[in-house]
Fold this sequence. Notes:
Chain A: This is N-methylglutamate synthase subunit B. Chain A: Residues 1-25 are annotated as: Disordered. The structure holds 2 protein chains of 2 kinds. Chain A starts with a helix and ends in a 15-residue tail after the last strand. Chain A is 15% helix and 23% strand. An 11-stranded mixed beta sheet of chain A has the order 1-2-3-4-5-6-7-8-9-11-10, with helices on one face. Chain A contains 3 helices and 11 strands. By secondary structure, chain B is an alpha/beta fold. Chain B contains 15 helices and 16 strands. In chain B, the strands form 5 sheets. Chain B has an 8-stranded parallel beta sheet with strand order 5-15-14-12-11-8-7-6. Chain B has a two-stranded antiparallel sheet with strand order 1-13. Chain B has a two-stranded antiparallel sheet with strand order 2-16. In chain B, α2 (101-113) packs across α14, α7 (236-245) packs across α9 (275-288) and α10 crosses α14 (376-400). Chain B is globular and about 60 Å long. Classes of the chains: A alpha/beta, B alpha/beta.
Amino acid sequence: MDAVARDTKHQGEHADRGAGPDNTETITFDLAETGGVRSLNAELHRPTSKSYAVQNPAGAHAIAAGIDADIAVDVHGHAGYYCAGMNDGGTVTVHGNAGTGVAENMMSGTVRVTGDASQSAGATAHGGLLIIEGSASMRCGISMKGVDIVVGGSVGSMSAFMAQAGRMVVCGDAGDGLGDSIYEARLYVRGTVGTLGADCIEKPMRDEHRAELAELLADAGLPHDPAEFRRYGSGRALYHFTSEHSGSY
Amino acid sequence: MTSPAERGLRESATFDRATIAGIQHAARTGVYDIRGWGAKRAVPHFDDLLFLGASMSRYPLEGYRERCDTDVVLGDRHAKFPLHLQTPVTIAGMSFGALSAQAKEALGRGASEVGTSTTTGDGGMTDEERGQSKNLVYQYLPSRYGMNPTHLRSADAIEVVLGQGAKPGGGGMLLGQKISDRVAEMRTLPPGIDQRSACRHPDWTGPDDLAIKIGELREITDWEKPVYVKVGATRTYYDVKLAVAAGADVVVVDGMQGGTAATQEVFIEHVGIPTLAAIPQAVQALQELGVHRKVQLIVSGGIRTGADVAKAMALGADAVAIGTAALVALGDNDPQYAAEYEAIGSAAGYYDDFQDGRDPAGITTQDPELSARLDPVEAGRRLANYLRVLTMEAQTIARACGKAHVLHLEPEDLVALTIEAAAMARVPLAGTTWIPGRDR
C-alpha cells in the first residue's frame, strides 16, 4: 500500500479518536471468550461507549493498552504485563493485581490498581496519575517522565531509577537504591528508605511540597498527613560527566 | 626536513603514533576518548569477497536492457501494512539530538526520493523527518526519550532497539553541549546537562518478556505495523533465533563497523564482531527456524558501495542500512570545510567528534548557525543520488551474476580473498573449494 495514502488514513483514524462517544451503557468483554485482548483493544481504540467492564482477565497481557479517549475501563481480576500501557486519557481500574509495566509510558489519564503491582509500574510514563493501593515491586517509576505515582504500600528496590520528571508518593517503605541517578523527579516517602541511590539526597519539605503532596494524596483517596513524609530528589552532582565520578555510581 | 622513516627511525607496530597519542591524552585529561563513527581498525570485510560473474556455466543478464528488480518487502510476517521499498538500501536510525533537524529532514528527503525508509533515533520523532519521510521506522529504545503513542501510530514500522554494532551492551551519553532547549524538551530533561541513554529497557528483560512487549506494541497499533528487532552483532546466531521467537517481523543486525554519535573509543574498537562474521550466523539462525526470507534480515555496519550491498544480500540479507555513508553523502567531512576541521583539531576525512556539537558541516550539531549551513533540499538530493548509485551498482553485479532480482544473489556467487574472510563469510577461498571451519 502507498505510504502517503496510509498517512492520510492514520490522520482520519485519529480524528475519530480522543473525544469518546456519548453512549454510557457499560459494555462487557469476557476475555475467556473468543477474541480476547485483541478484540477488546480494537473496541477501546474506537470506543462506542464510555464505560467498559472486563471479566476473566486471568493475567492476560496488554489489557486496555493504547487508549486515547475519555472512557472508563474496569478490569475485574488480575492483569498481566503492560495493562493500560501508553494510555493517553481515560480511567482504567484493575480490581486485583497488575503485572509488570502497568501504565508504562502513560501520557495522561488515570490508572488505579486495587491490589499490588509487579515490576516497573509506571515506567517512563509522561503524565497522568497511577495509583497502586497495595505495594509495587522493583523499579517502580523507572525513568518516569512526568507521571504522578501514588503507592499505598511500599516499593521495591531501584524505584525511580533515572527518574526524569513527575512525582512519586510512597506511603509505606522504599527499598534499596531509591532514586538512583535521578534527574528532576520529586519523591515522597512516609516510611523508611533502604538506601538512597547514586546522587539521590533527602531534601527539605517546604510548604509547596506539603501542598502538592496533600493534593496527590487526596487524588488517590489516601488519608495520610503530609507531615509524615520526607522528600528526596537529585543532588545534581552527576549532571556532568567527569572521571572523578567513576567511583560514585 | 626528512621524514622520520627517511632518517631510519622505526615506528613501533605495538605503540604506533595513534596509540602513543591515546596514552598522552589519557594522562593529560584523565578521561577516555569519546567519539562518533564506528570501528576504525581493519577487520575482515566485504572488500575481502569477490563475485563470480557468469560465463559458460551461468548466463548473465544484459546491462541497461534486461530487467533486474531491486524492490523489497519488509515485515509481512504479522503486520497488516508491511513496507514495500524500491531499493534494499535503507537509512539507519540516527537521533535528532545527535543530528541537526536539517540533517534529519535531509535524510527523509533523500530516502523518500528513491522510495526507501529512514529511521528515527534516541530522542523521538521530529515533524521535519515525519513530514519528509514516506516510510519512517520509529525506534523504540531503552531511554524512551520523546516516546509517545501518537508517534508510534504515525510510524510505518517500529524498531525495538536492543543494541547497536558500535557498542553492543552499551547505552549512550548525549553531552550537554548538544542539549538545546528543543532537544531537552523532547527528552524531558533540563537543557545543558549530560543525558544518559540507558542500556537496558526499563520494563522488560530477556526474550520471553520481549515477546510480551512486542505483543503490546502490536495491540497499541492494531497489528498494522511491522516490528523490527535490532541487535548489535555479538552472539548473532542466538540473538537472531531469540528475536524471531519473540515475534520480530524483521531482524536488524548491526556489525562493529556501524557508527554511533558518541561512545567510548575502547567500546567501539573492542566490543562486537565484524559485519561479515555476523551475516552467516544470522542467516543460519533464520534458515534453521524455517523463516529465512519470511522474517527479513537487514544488515548494517560498513556498507559503502553497491558491491557491499550486493555482497550482504548474496550472503542472505534482505536489505541493508547505511548511517555513516549517508552522513558523508549529506556533506559530512566535506573538504570545503578543511580549514574549520583543522581549527577544531581534526581534518576533513578524519572528523569523528560527533559528540561535541561543533561539526563544521552542520550535521552532528545543534548549534543554530552551524546547522543552518546544511540545506536539507540540496543535502537530500545528494543522498538520493548516492542511494541511486548504490542501487545501480548492486544491479550491475546482480545482472553479471545472471540475477533478475538483487534478492536472487546467493552465497554460491561469492568467493573470499583471505582465509579469515572465507571462514567468517562461509564461502570458499578463491580458486579453491575450501571453506575454513566448514570442511573439517
